[in-house]
Amino acid sequence: MSVTIAILGLALLVLVHEAGHFFAALAVWMSPRKFYIGFPPAIVKRKWNGVEYGIGAIPLGGYVRIPGMHRPAAQDVDLHFGPARHERPELTVPLERLRRALVDNDLISAQHELEVLEHAVRRAELSPQALRAAERGLRDIGDALAPDAYWRQATWKRIVAIAAGPGANILLALVLFTALFVMTGGAATSQISSVRPGYPGVAAGLRAQDLVLAIDNKPVMPDGIAKAINDTKGKPVLVIVKRGQKYRELGPIRAKKDTDGIYRFGFMLDRKNLTFPGAAWQSVRLTGLVTKEIGLSLSRLVHGSGRKDISSPVGIVRGSSAAINQGTESYLWVLGLLSLSLALLNLLPLLPLDGGHILFSIIEGVRGRAVGRRVYERVSAVGLAVVLLLFFIGLSNDIGRLGS
After folding, report:
1. 300 has pLDDT over 80
2. Are 243 and 229 in contact (CB under 8 A)?
């Protein structure tokens, strides 16, 4: 059950990401063509105001289609209409006219030739496979030639539409962190709020309202209690607490190694109350700290170290599942961190990631004209190779952790 919840949590993060793209594109008049909860094929779909809304058969995240992500190119004609040309050679003339218009960057003529080609395709008797490919070509090239195509928009509109995906994930992380800080408070105190059944603290006699003063004969401050317990590595130690007006020495206690590898006595500490503004500030501060640590992790990877820091979806689900077993609060912290990590990963300046699209939008804005399609394809191939490399490194790490 916990694995299912973890997978659904990841799907929620993807859906939030795609929703960010969708609503931002609407806000800058870019007219997305589709928005699905889940991935196609659609179980249910309905068109409203030119947008096809649907529920996909694959319930993992969401899907949005923004028209014309790239300038149409002559190779699009060959890609989509090859089967139709093979079955109906008479389509060669309108196809070549469309191809020539795209080579010449004559978008007005290309739009006219596309309409001529569409009539010719409708009259031709094509096999279902060739017809589907041709209809996909008519749709994709038509979207790329439309006035609201992504590549034809002002630079700021393109950046808004693309950056809104990671932005939505960052916003979700901030909301989760703020809510958790409000519910759990700020910095920990030395006072125990609750003792968990099945852990050594119960057997040793720890109680709610006890003040933890020393562990293994060493005084501890509130922010050092968890580390002091983990440092015992399960060896028997004495714990000194203040209960009311009396001091008590409890133990010896052997900390229990939890599913995440951390040694615990099994108690929760009270936290200082936080106002909403204070909680919001702490969430911003935490977001900044996590962003810095992820950046350092990536820099270590570039220099040859930090390989073990990478995880694949397998490890993410496993970690999320462990957090669920520790309670809702732990899982929500993990979900917020995952949402932030997803945003930062997508902001890397690599195609086909969002950061790559933002970078190329800026480059094209400075140049005053679109970058060639072949450049996009070559850079995307490199970016995809890097992403796949990171995935396989993470997967090998996760397999090693599962094996151990």
Report:
1. no
2. no
Give 85-130 pLDDT, tens digit per residue: 999 999 999 999 999 999 998 999 999 999 999 999 999 889 999 9
Mean pLDDT of the chain: 87
Whose tokens are 């590549």? That residue is 151
Question: What is the C-alpha to C-alpha distance for residues 197 and 185, in angstroms, rounded to an integer?
Answer: 23
d(CA 402, CA 404): 5
Q: Please name which of 162, 148, 151, 154 lies closest in space to residue 18, comparing C-alpha atoms.
A: 162
Looking at residue 284, its pLDDT comes to 93
CB 163 within 8 A of CB 358: yes
Q: How far apart are CA 371 and CA 358, in angstroms?
A: 13
User: Which range marks the domain in which residue 224 is found?
Assistant: 187-271
Residue 81, SS3?
helix
Q: How many domains does the chain have?
A: 2
Q: How far is CA 262 from the centre of its chain?
A: 27
Which of 251, 271, 291 finishes a domain?
Answer: 271
Contact present, 253 and 200 (Cβ < 8 Å): yes
